[in-house]
Amino acid sequence: GHSDTVSSCHFCFEDTKILSCSYDRTVKLWDVEKGFPIEVFEEHTAPISECNLTPDDRRVVTSSYDNTVKAWDMETGKMLWTVEHEGIVTSCNISCDGRYVVSGSDKENTICVFDAVSATVVAHIQGHHKSTITRCCFDPDNQRVTSVSYDKTVKLWDLLTRSTSITINEGHSNAISDCCFTSDGHYLCTASWDRSLKIWDIKTGEFQCHEPVSLNQGHEGSVSSCCFSQDASLVVSGGYDKTIAIWD
């Protein structure tokens, strides 16, 4: 499929297509049945760290080690805009309403929120973490941006108040590699190099007085990714031990 590491992939167009991006500097749109790419996007000059789709499947946003975030029109394959960053961009995400894009950069460990159509910057938060941001994403209500980092912390930044509403410092004993929300935004899952995953009750703030649900013994190595099922009854995780774990 790609000539180098595949960094991100998603089903789209009602599961008939797959979008993938790679360290080979390309983004590809695949036909699931036929198994070959219908569209190839080739404007990045360095590895692509993540790709994301708007909910209507009309636009793709990509982040790259070439210090840029780019948006593409899925129908025409044309690039719509480029936002330059001062450092490599490790993650990007589109809000569920398609209005905003968030990116994480390793220059001063910054998160940047900008308008998905005009690419104008809405917020630029420098020093948000003490080390490289590994993943950033919007909650399903489009009100908060969650980010996780090598600094072992989880942060939720509020779009309305323009401030950090939640910081979790004691959750993991090693770098946090990934995070994801349940579809209702009630729970947040974090995956870490400490070989565990944690489930946080974000909606009611239960985690502040009770320990989060801890998922252990599933991996023999660092956990690299996590994802909730649509009904939030399962979590699937992938690890550096080359295994996938499914949790109840």
Please outline the helices and strands.
Layout: E1 6-12, E2 17-22, E3 27-31, E4 37-41, E5 48-53, E6 59-64, E7 68-73, E8 79-84, E9 89-94, E10 100-105, E11 110-115, E12 121-125, E13 133-138, E14 144-149, E15 154-158, E16 163-168, E17 176-181, E18 187-192, E19 197-201, E20 213-215, E21 223-228, E22 235-239, E23 244-247
Antiparallel strand pairs: 1-2, 2-3, 3-4, 5-6, 6-7, 7-8, 9-10, 10-11, 11-12, 13-14, 14-15, 15-16, 17-18, 18-19, 19-20, 21-22, 22-23
Keywords:
about 250 residues; mainly beta; Methylamine Dehydrogenase, Chain H; 2 domains; four-stranded antiparallel β-sheet; globular; WD40_repeat_dom_sf; WD40/YVTN_repeat-like_dom_sf; WD repeat-containing protein 88
Q: How would you state the average pLDDT, rounded?
A: 95
**Main pleated sheet:** 4 strands, antiparallel
Order of helices and strands: EEEEEEEEEEEEEEEEEEEEEEE
Radius of gyration equals 17 Å
* Count of strand segments: 23
Number of discrete helical segments: 0
Q: Which CATH architecture of the largest domain is right?
A: 7 Propeller
Q: Level of helix content?
A: under 10%
CATH superfamily of the largest domain: YVTN repeat-like/Quinoprotein amine dehydrogenase
At CATH level 3, the topology of the largest domain is: Methylamine Dehydrogenase, Chain H
